[in-house]
């Protein structure tokens, strides 16, 4: 057996939490030495939490990401602002602490998205705040067959409204505020767009809801239909945004691929099945979490106190290479 085999890692496998690997040593050196074995374990299990390395600061986290990943990806079409610490290394998305970031696959509305997510916890919250995970093939298998069939047939649509008042700005999302550059990006990435009289931008993009894993070939529920839906917002937040921006002016919303609304009942069903299949482990200072972004959805639970988690995305995957056909 090859020395980099995932089976050589002594993983703690328990129901209801991601696989945990205890590790000690210099974080960047350990990451370089165990890179192949750890990545193989992520492919096998969908995620691995490395505990005990004691990643102490941003510089160490950045170096671990660089040694563990392949090409670190520059985020495009962000749904919330982030702080950039180094090329391809970011803060967690700025999102209210008391509101959950429901299960989703990162950037699953792009034509090229990360195959692996890397998270480094420098400061664990005093309560809550776990980055929980859920197995996408399992979730797919538990969804109502007629709902899956419709989403497979039609895909899903993401509708976004960019303005200067809420959510990610045009420059946050596209890396530029130049209209011509934004329009060229949209055309190149199969995004319909319309400039608004106030200078804002509305976009529509249709994507696959189910894909095949690029390595295993397993069918995966892969999207952000529930997370970026109006019905996942807290009721008081939803009411306020509709009152201020109108039902069609929400910062984001999801639809069936033909443009029909996705009902509150559908989103509730999706989130219930995610909840049933959620695995979580509270963060500890110095933890490293690797997540197969196609095989495994992730979330961020509400939290109290300070929380600092750095994020990097790697192993770019083209949607065209994993569609179910």
TrEMBL record:
Presence of keyword ATP-binding: no
Region entry Disordered, spans: 1-28
Keywords per UniProt: Antibiotic biosynthesis, Dioxygenase, Iron, Oxidoreductase
Residue ranges annotated for the TauD/TfdA-like domain, each copy included: 27-313
InterPro entries: AlphaKG_dependent_hydroxylases, TauD-like_sf, TauD/TfdA-like
Cofactor(s) named in the record: Fe(2+)
Example GO molecular function: dioxygenase activity
Keyword Transcription: no
Domain of life of the organism encoding this protein: Bacteria
Lineage of the species this protein comes from: Bacteria, Bacillati, Actinomycetota, Actinomycetes, Pseudonocardiales
Protein name: TauD/TfdA family dioxygenase
């Amino acid at each position: 057996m090859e020395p980099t085999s995932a089976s050589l890692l002594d993983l703690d496998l328990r129901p209801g939490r991601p696989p945990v690997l205890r590790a000690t040593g210099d974080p960047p050196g350990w990451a370089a030495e165990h890179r192949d074995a750890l990545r193989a374990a992520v492919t096998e299990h969908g995620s691995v939490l490395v505990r005990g390395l004691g990643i102490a600061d941003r510089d160490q986290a950045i170096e671990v990401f660089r040694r563990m990943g392949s090409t670190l990806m520059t985020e495009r079409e962000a749904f919330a602002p982030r702080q950039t610490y180094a090329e391809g290394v970011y803060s967690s998305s700025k999102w209210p602490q008391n509101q959950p970031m429901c299960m989703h696959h990162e950037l699953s509305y792009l034509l090229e998205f990360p195959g692996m997510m890397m998270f480094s916890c420098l400061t664990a919250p005093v309560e809550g705040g776990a980055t929980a995970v859920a197995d996408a093939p399992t979730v797919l298998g538990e969804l109502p067959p007629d709902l899956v069939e419709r989403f497979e047939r039609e895909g899903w649509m993401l509708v976004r409204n960019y303005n200067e008042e809420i959510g990610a700005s045009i420059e946050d999302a596209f890396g530029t505020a130049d209209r011509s550059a934004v329009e060229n990006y949209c055309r190149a990435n199969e995004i319909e767009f319309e400039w608004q009289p106030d200078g804002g931008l509305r976009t529509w993009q249709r994507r696959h809801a189910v894909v095949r894993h690029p390595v295993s070939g397993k069918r995966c529920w892969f999207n952000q239909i529930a997370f970026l839906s109006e019905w996942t917002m807290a009721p008081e937040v939803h009411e306020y945004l509709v009152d201020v921006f109108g039902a069609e002016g929400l910062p984001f919303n999801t639809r069936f691929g033909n443009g029909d609304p996705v009902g509150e009942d559908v989103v509730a069903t999706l989130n219930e099945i995610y909840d049933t299949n959620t695995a979580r482990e509270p963060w500890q200072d110095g933890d490293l979490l690797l997540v197969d972004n196609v095989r495994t959805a992730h979330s961020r639970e509400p939290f109290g106190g300070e929380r600092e988690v750095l994020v990097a995305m790697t192993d770019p995957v083209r949607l065209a290479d994993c569609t179910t056909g």
